[in-house]
Amino acid sequence: MEEKPKNKPILLLDMYGVIIKESKGYFIPYTYEHFDVKEHDRLTRAFREECLFTKAGNGEISSDEFLSRLGYPDPQEAMEDYLTHYLTLDPDFIRFAECHYRQYDFVLFSNDVREWSKYLFSLYGLQKYFKDAIVSGEIHMRKPEARIFTHTLERLQCRPRNCIFVDNSVRNINAARKAGLETVLFNRDHEAYSGNIVSNFQELGIFLKEHAKTV
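and the corresponding structure tokens:
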């Protein structure tokens, strides 16, 4: 009788601060740069009081509505300009992915506007490497809420110990640890942390090889 093949371990990867170098994105500065200073008070209210960015990231409003309410005359053009020219794909990611995506099921796990995540996937051809994408704008919940980890494990039909979660936020990492996941801090922002830490994709590759020996 043939043995049933084992499920591959799952590698949950954050977008901003891991795959994309800008850990907090650049959209708010981008917006202030693209509007006259007379508009800045209005924009501040839109971000802080109306929480438009958070609503877009939670899927409560679409990217087009979000950008229109900020005052962009062509929301699609603004989205494409920002994502294409103001964010940076980590140059080592594709090399890392080519080395590891056959041994791991890559899953994007990101707080992001739904349309922005899809655009970045298409722009950089990331769909080749990823089994799934779990994005706050799609599922209406976000890291570090405990329920998003429960949802993710149920959706992927995997046990926590079979998931390695890579993120640049200590808050998100701590929440994942409480859910039982193996965690790695991708420490672009040089935060203090006592658990597994890597600074780049070469170090993450080394971690995966060492981790595989222990399971």
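(Above: one complete record from the training split.) Residues 35 and 71 are 9 Å apart (CA to CA).
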